[in-house]
Amino acid sequence: MTDSKRKNPRQERARQTVDTILQTTAQILVEEGADKLTTNYLARKAGFSIGTIYQYFPHREAIVLALIERQREQARQRIAMVVQHLPKGGMEEKLRLIVRTLHHAFSLHRNADQRLTFALLRLAIAHGLPAPSDDLAEALVKVWQEGEGTTAAALNASETFVLTRALVEVLRHATLHGSPLLGTTEFEDALLRLVLGFLRASRDGSD
């Protein structure tokens, strides 16, 4: 048996331990709120000693960051799927699909996963971190810039920041305040007009 094979059971146990810690963290955030999340309480809920928690995470914030990063990775995978399967139609159709995906990510659904998304969204804001949806907004700009057969001009850093922040912050605000507009076609259309208007103005201004 090779050395790498001998290590597999230990590595698998470590992975399972980390998964349990993160899953329990998510459960606490969803059911009890961020204020209840302490390393001591987490250890009791997960069935581990406090030493086990600290073996993998040096402090509470590191656990939260790991959970946010896991959400970001899932978002990256969704982005890759969306971009890979963009239709062959015009740029507006492609941008609508990306806006729809971003809109859907924020739309209210009464389930634990969505409540977890909201909890992590608040924590990401509190830590000054980009939310998972930021990657999708940036993909929208990239698709515009790389669009085949378009006259899309490259956005500068300021324009990219303003557009992505405007789009994401509108959705964040609607999400955190429980707006009934989320999930509606009317809201999606308004978001698309925001994006198209900004991109077209940027293109025309560069002529």
Task: Describe the structure in brief.
With 207 residues, the protein is an all-alpha fold.
Task: Lay out the secondary structure.
Elements: H1 3-31, H2 39-46, H3 50-56, H4 60-84, H5 91-106, H6 112-126, H7 132-145, H8 157-176, H9 185-205
DNA-binding region: 38-57
Keywords: DNA-binding
Organism: Duganella guangzhouensis
Which properties best describe this structure?
single chain, 207 residues, mainly alpha, Arc Repressor Mutant, subunit A, 2 domains, 9 helices, 0% strand, elongated, DNA-binding, transcription cis-regulatory region binding
Question: How would you describe the overall organization of this protein?
Answer:
With 207 residues, this protein is mostly helical. The chain has 2 domains: 8-58, Arc Repressor Mutant, subunit A; 68-205. It has helices spanning 3-31, 39-46, 50-56, 60-84, 91-106, 112-126, 132-145, 157-176, 185-205. Helix 1 (3-31) crosses helix 6, helix 5 (91-106) runs antiparallel to helix 7 (132-145) and helix 5 packs across helix 9. The N and C termini lie far apart (66 Å). The model is unreliable at 1-7 and 108-112 (pLDDT under 50).
